[in-house]
Amino acid sequence: MSTIVETHEDHGHHGPAKGLTRWLFTTNHKDIGTLYLWFSFLMLFIGGAMAMVVRAELFEPGLQIIQPEFFNQMTTNHGLIMVFGVIMPAFVGLANWMIPMQIGAPDMALPRLNNLSFWLLPMAFTILLSTLFMEPGGPNFGWTFYAPLSTTYAPDTVTFFIFSIHIMGASSILGSINIITTILNMRAPGLTLMKMPLFCWSWLITAYLLIAVMPVLAGTVTMMLMDIHFGTSFFNAAGGGDPILFQHIFWFFGHPEVYIMILPAFGIVSHVISTFSRKPIFGYSSMVYALTSIAILSFVVWAHHMFTVGMPLAGELFFMYSTMLIAIPTGVKVFNWVATMFKGSISFETPMLFAIAFVALFTIGGFSGLMLTIVPADFQYHDTYFVVAHFHYVLVPGSLFGIFAGVYYWIPKWTGNMYDETLGKLHFWLSFISVNLTFFPMHFVGLAGMPRRYPDYALQFADFNAMASVGAFIFGFSQLLLLFIVIKSIRTGKKASSEVWEDAKGRGLEWTLESPPPYHSFTIQPEVK
Amino acid sequence: MSSHQQPYYVPKSSKLPFAMAVTMLTLIIGASTTLKPELGPFGENSYLVLLTGFLMMWTTMFFWFSQVIKENNEGLNNLMLNNSYYYGMAWFIFSEVMFFFAFFFALAYIRNFAVPWLGGEGEKGISNILWPGFEAHWPLMVTPDQAAFPGPEEEMSFGTAYGHGGLAGVLGWIPLYNTICLLSSSVTVHIAHLGLKNGNRLQFNLFLAITLILGYSFVVLQAIEYSEAYTQMGLTLKSGAYGTTFFMLTGFHGFHVCLGAIILTIMLIRGLRGHFSHDDQFGFEAGSWYWHFVDVVWICLVAFVYVM
């Protein structure tokens, strides 16, 4: 028995291992969170470079730089990388870092599984990116990979794509099982669910959504694999199947996926707005109920992505109204954020700037989404740049700004050093202006009828496209500034106190730990009153 | 949550997860290049990469599970960690439920929408202009394009078995015996569990062994059913939407039965070695949860694939 006790004491105090093996074999939630965040940062630049190729080609009408075949590969891989390689891993990285610290746990519940869920991702993306260097080229059927484009007419590399999606799905499922287990099982005594920080709540719901829909995505790509290689006819009408079945199953995954990419940002923004308004969040329990309702509703709205595909009228009406319902809980959240700021003593540090921009610009994306739910209007908007503008507004100044807000908010806690506030503000203003310059004109060209996914366009769209391209390049290069700010904060900077932000101690257990926190967050669980 | 005196066990570091990630990389390279040898560097030998991947997978899993069992035997797992394992398994099973949901969804859509529309029924019946003269029916014996997807000559449904031979036909219907095997095995695994709870090792080992016999019988019966389908009924993966949904649903289920049987076999070996006690039985309980889960899936299969 004594040997066991020794092992425990030994493990309670050990620090990180030295060298590369620390990162390969780690079971520590902070190390794995760091890995996730750096991985998503790297993928942001890879996926961003692809977006730059797309915008360079679209700078003026006509074909100048690349061939249409390569353009298709760029748009497809840009989408896949940004969804599966940037936004999702960045949120998982934040979850890894923050959830054990926010709930008073020593680590994640299943540390080895945690390591596996991270290391599956580089493997999956190695395979996905390697297809770009193969003879038939990489995936070129859009990130939604509709059959039969992705089955009958797909390049041969689609097989590699299918298996890489399987691995990404496995990574997400394992990661979510871990997060959900950590939140449900490892909370400090006294920390009831309805006292839990909203970031943990948002991740509890997100993890549930991931476990529910990632297997459906795995099923979809498995059906593709069988259709391509084993002669089944899921998506082939000649055998009694239906290509539209693909869209139904894909969007049954795809729509909850949309919320998977935004709910954790809701959580982050709630913390940031509360801290810098120096007020507790307004309507905590309504925030929790709104998150939950969004998650439940997200399972019954999927066909609003496919109004023009030829559905019975009853289906169109059902999916139109159910989609509009989602605006209600989302409106509750926006209202609560604004009400939290109302009469608060607001200060505008970088995280707060990103959070306020999030609220404003995400709401624009939400409203254009509401326009798209209207079936007769959607027949006009479908597959135009209006849709591109809509989902980039919710994903870039939405999810990505949410991630930026979280990084600036917590980086003093992670590194022990404050980031450079002046550079942070510069990064914000460059990003804020350029993101609007990039995506706002897309509303106009979309409403005027410019279709998405083409490398060329009619002359009347030239001015707005040139503006969008200039904005995109400014936005892309501004992110190098973030890289510099992060590295600077790791190396030098004003020492951060354990509280970091004024009066933050009452706003979460993470602010009771020193900055940087000990290698294992809470070896002894704190009591929460 | 009464375990605060004993710290939560966090392994120092582990080579196993990274080994597993490399294994998965090997597996998907092997699988992709086996299906598309011209795209990989291994040519006709690509299947060897796939086999290596499987070998690596079983090896890594063996060491991983041995490690966890060893830690448990050393008493490192406190109550909270044990709970984490239970939560983990429950949510894993939920993910499996959703995987099957995708295939049941496909079946429901094809039966209720795709095929009737192709046959000219309902609001979207205009699809019939694709293959004029195609008539909708289920099971789909004549596909829209018989040259590309020749429909099956016979099918597996309960109705047909009964219609052809009445009671005798039903008695010769393999899924009946599959159902008996699987449903009774769910009962026997529960009796084994009761034995473990009450400290009756003999009952535990005996009924777990019976469960396994029933489980493996199911697999054998399904193999017989498949070989009949392929050799005598012209029912294959390639015979249109009926063959597609039939084999994919029953096939994935059969695969999960095999997994469950392997898990329970390991639990039997552990039981015979004296592992588990009335308050330390996560491995077995996880296996038996999994077994009940494949049982529930089978009931849905009988309802939606065989009977309705």
Global shape of chain A: globular
Q: Do you know the CATH architecture of chain A?
A: Up-down Bundle
What is the SS-derived class of chain A?
Answer: mainly alpha
User: The CATH topology of chain A, please?
Assistant: Cytochrome C Oxidase, Chain A
How much beta of chain A, percentage-wise? under 5%
Q: What's the average pLDDT of chain A?
A: 94
Decide which structural class fits the backbone of chain B.
Answer: mainly alpha
Order of helices and strands of chain B: HHHHHHHH
The CA-CA distance between the termini of chain A, in Å, is: 34 Å
Structure description:
The complex is a heterodimer of chains A (529) and B (308). With 529 residues, chain A is mostly helical. Chain A has one domain (24-512): Cytochrome C Oxidase, Chain A. Chain A contains 16 helices and no strands. Chain A has helices at 2-13, 20-25, 29-57, 68-103, 111-130, 158-185, 198-229, 243-260, 263-277, 284-297, 313-341, 350-373, 375-381, 385-415, 421-447, 462-491. In chain A, helix 3 (29-57) runs antiparallel to helix 4, helix 4 runs parallel beside helix 6 (158-185) and helix 7 (198-229) runs antiparallel to helix 9 (263-277). With 308 residues, chain B is mostly helical. Chain B folds into two domains: 1-77, Helix Hairpins (Orthogonal Bundle), CATH 1.10.287; 80-307, Up-down Bundle (Four Helix Bundle (Hemerythrin (Met), subunit A)), CATH 1.20.120.80. Helix content of chain B is 70%, strand content 0%. Chain B has helices at 16-35, 46-73, 79-118, 158-171, 174-197, 201-232, 240-272, 282-307. The model of chain B has no long low-confidence stretch (mean pLDDT 94).
